[in-house]
């Protein structure tokens, strides 16, 4: 799903503290690797959560034979480049060569479809969360299960392949997510963290395992009952945060570092989806807390007190890395169109011999946007690079629409772009908070869009009508959260007192002195966004028509 920092460049490396330098020297560091939609990112932390180095690799999905996919050879090129860049950053910060890790973990965009045969060979190219052709399968499963089964879930993709009588289906012997696949290659273990697993197939909140009753129901469905497998035999083993998920093998160490400099044997944490690592990165894993992760796609997670009374197609039910139920509002689109427009302005600045850097340009444009009227001067922006299930739009066509009397200015255009980035998300949050009356005490936000202080953060607070907090790791996102999960797993195996639960570990070890900046909804801004969202929802038929005729 989302890449948490697509709209900014990594900051320049700073000199690490003496304690961090010693931690690298002694191998008391933890690596978080996250494969986002547009960027692979690696973050190394010490036992205080301080960043000792980072690396990144930009990549893009491609439409191949009508399917959004990533090439797995390109994946490993990206992982190796990202890790090499991290090692270089560690040397720059600490003067030390990274040779060993206390632990590591892998996170990735959630769900999709990676199917392997009995020889562990990939049967069809990786089908990502971005594909929306599973509509019939998703609807069928949702009706049979009495739960909302989203388009991107692995079981929806499997059912779609079965409904299409795809030749490979009978030969499937293992299904996993992208995080599960990379973890498997590094450790040899076919496991998955409960948060990511809850997007492959529904998880029973009481047992923390796949819902046994619905597994049986799936296997009895006429569309799949004739196959030679049972679904429970295809899925990865579920682990919760803190459990031992294996060790980095010799082969895995070479996959990360082909030079041979990295030692094998490091403890691996259960692999998670970017939703789970986002919850960790924002310390929002207790009931009543929530987080928003904004990148190419976006999602809002709210940890529930109790199960929802009704199944809603706008709301996915997933789990925290500890297994607690979570309501998730997921959107396929967030910053992609916004970033493209910033690229247009960047090129214009270059033609004028401007020297503004990327971070500075975002700051200028975002700040200008906040000078516009609170309703964005009646300018509507649909940022749909791809179809948007949250608003029932089957195919994406980025679109700007304004009334005849609307005043088009740079400020109103940029405010509309910021509003549009959260439009589908805000629509889903209305259902969750207003119609379903879910409790939300605090919302944390992370992702590159929040690095311009106070702008996107204020827009989001106005959009959802709740306070929004942003911390120093806003741009580090899920890779940092995955590194924290790796540190937690290591602490659990060592019997550390504050690692008895993930909640306690985060409160007492990671976030005890964590600086946060919180903004409340602005009454004028909230009223303006609400009016804008009403027009946005009313105009969705125009966006749907655009896909039909363009």
UniProtKB/TrEMBL annotation:
Which protein, by its recorded name, is this?
Sugar (Pentulose or hexulose) kinase
Task: Give an example GO biological process.
Answer: D-xylose metabolic process
Keywords on record: Carbohydrate metabolism, Kinase, Transferase, Xylose metabolism
Gene Ontology terms, MF aspect: kinase activity
This protein's record includes keyword Kinase: yes
Gene3D superfamilies, alphabetically?
A: 3.30.420.40
The record places domain Carbohydrate kinase FGGY N-terminal at: 29-253
Q: Which InterPro entries match?
A: ATPase_NBD (IPR043129), FGGY_C (IPR018485), FGGY_Carb_Kinase (IPR050406), FGGY_N (IPR018484)
Which residues does the UniProt record annotate as the domain Carbohydrate kinase FGGY C-terminal? 291-489
Keyword Transferase listed? The answer is yes
Family under the similarity heading:
Belongs to the FGGY kinase family.
């Amino acid at each position: 799903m989302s890449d948490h920092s697509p709209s900014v460049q990594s900051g320049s490396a700073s000199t690490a503290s003496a304690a961090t330098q010693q931690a690298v020297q002694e191998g008391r560091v933890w690596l978080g690797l996250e494969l986002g939609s547009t960027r692979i990112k690696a973050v190394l932390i010490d036992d205080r959560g301080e960043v000792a180095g980072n690396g990144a690799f930009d990549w893009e999905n491609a439409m191949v034979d009508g399917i959004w996919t990533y090439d797995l050879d390109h994946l490993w090129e990206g992982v190796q480049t990202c890790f090499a860049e991290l090692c270089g950053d560690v040397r720059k910060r600490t003067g030390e060569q990274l040779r060993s890790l206390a632990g590591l973990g892998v996170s990735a965009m959630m769900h999709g479809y990676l199917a392997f045969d009995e020889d562990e060979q990939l049967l069809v190219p990786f089908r990502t969360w971005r594909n929306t052709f599973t509509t019939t399968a998703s609807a069928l499963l949702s009706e049979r299960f009495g739960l909302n089964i989203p388009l991107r879930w692995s079981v929806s993709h499997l059912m779609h392949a079965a409904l299409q009588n795809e030749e490979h289906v009978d030969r499937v012997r293992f299904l996993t997510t992208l995080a599960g696949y990379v973890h498997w290659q590094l450790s040899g273990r076919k496991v998955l963290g409960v948060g990511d697993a809850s997007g492959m197939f529904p998880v029973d909140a009481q047992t923390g395992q796949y819902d046994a009753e619905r597994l049986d129901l799936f296997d009895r469905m006429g569309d799949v009952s004739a196959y030679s497998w049972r679904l429970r035999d295809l899925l990865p083993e579920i682990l919760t945060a803190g459990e031992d998920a294996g060790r980095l093998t010799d082969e895995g160490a070479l996959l990360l570092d082909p030079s041979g400099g990295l030692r094998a044997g490091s403890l691996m944490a259960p692999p998670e989806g970017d939703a789970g690592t986002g919850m960790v990165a924002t310390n929002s894993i207790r009931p009543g807390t929530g987080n928003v992760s904004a990148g190419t796609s976006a999602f809002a997670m709210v940890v529930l007190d109790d199960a929802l009374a009704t199944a809603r197609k706008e709301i996915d039910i997933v789990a925290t890395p500890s297994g607690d139920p979570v309501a998730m509002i997921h959107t396929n689109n967030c910053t992609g169109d916004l970033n493209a427009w910033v690229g247009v302005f960047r090129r214009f600045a270059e033609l004028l011999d401007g020297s503004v850097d990327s971070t500075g340009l975002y700051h200028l444009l975002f700040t200008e946007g906040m000078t516009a009227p609170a309703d964005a001067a009646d300018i509507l922006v649909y940022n749909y690079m791809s179809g948007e299930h949250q608003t029932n739009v089957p195919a994406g066509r980025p679109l700007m629409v304004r009334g005849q009397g609307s005043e088009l200015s740079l400020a109103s255009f940029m405010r509309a772009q910021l509003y549009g980035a959260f439009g589908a998300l805000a629509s889903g949050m209305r259902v969750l908070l207003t119609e379903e009356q879910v409790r939300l005490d605090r919302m944390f936000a992370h992702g590159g869009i929040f690095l311009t202080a106070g702008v996107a953060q204020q827009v989001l607070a106005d959009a959802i009508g709740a306070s929004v907090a942003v911390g120093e790791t806003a741009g580090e996102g899920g890779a940092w959260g995955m590194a924290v999960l790796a540190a937690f797993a290591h602490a659990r195996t060592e019997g550390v007192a504050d690692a008895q639960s993930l909640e306690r570990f985060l409160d007492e070890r990671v976030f005890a002195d964590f600086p946060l900046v919180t903004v409340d909804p602005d009454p004028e801004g909230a009223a303006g966004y609400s009016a804008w969202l009403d027009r946005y929802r009313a105009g969705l038929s125009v966006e749907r028509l655009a896909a039909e005729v363009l």
